[in-house]
Amino acid sequence: MAYGVLPADGSMLPAELAVWAAGVKGVDFLKGLGGLETSRINQLRVLPTLQTTRGPVIFALGDCAYYPREGSDQPIPPRAQAAHQQASHT
Fold first, then answer.
1. Is the model's pTM score more than 0.90?
2. Distance separating alpha carbons of residues 70 and 43, to the nearest angstrom
3. Which of 2, 33, 49, 50 is at a distance of 20 to 30 A from 56, taking alpha carbons?
4. What burial class does residue 70 get, using C-beta atoms within 10 Å of its C-beta: 0-12 exposed, 13-18 middle, 19+ buried?
5. pLDDT of the residue at 50
6. Domains held by the chain: number
């Protein structure tokens, strides 16, 4: 059996671990997960590609992603609209 994430287009994105976060805070176990960089509310810090800053093969989007707005230290808010745009980006 293959493991991964199955998007609506039917393609398979292989993954050993997929995290579903709902709400405005990342789940507690993300803090310190594999040495990944996290925000104060357990979101994984990501690059414009949605790759984590310390793990180029690890992606995060939606509620568990911390991406600062361009030219600002403030992140994109963890809301459904941002998650939808991030999902369209991947």
1. no
2. 18
3. 2
4. exposed
5. 87
6. 1
